[in-house]
Amino acid sequence: MTRYLAEIAWETEVWVADQLDHMIHFNGERFLSTHEIPNGNL
Q1: Mind listing the pLDDT tens digit for each residue in 9-41?
Q2: Residue 10 vs residues 26, 39, 40, 41, 42: alpha-carbon distances, Å
């Protein structure tokens, strides 16, 4: 994965192919949860 770190955008979630049950989140202050999208739906 270190090979691609420079190409991964901040504030994105990344799944690593050899560990599909692990996710790397590139923003320490944001956690995964439901969130409101622009049209008002969840």
Answers
A1: 877 777 766 766 666 767 655 555 555 667 755
A2: 5, 24, 25, 24, 23
Of 41, 1, 9, nearest to 26 by C-alpha is 9
Residue in this structure with the two tokens 């409101």, named with its chain if needed:
36
Residue found under tokens 């049209």: 39
Q: Is 29 left (phi over 0), alpha (psi -120 to 50) or beta?
A: alpha
pTM beyond 0.85: the answer is: no
Beta bridge mates, 15: 23
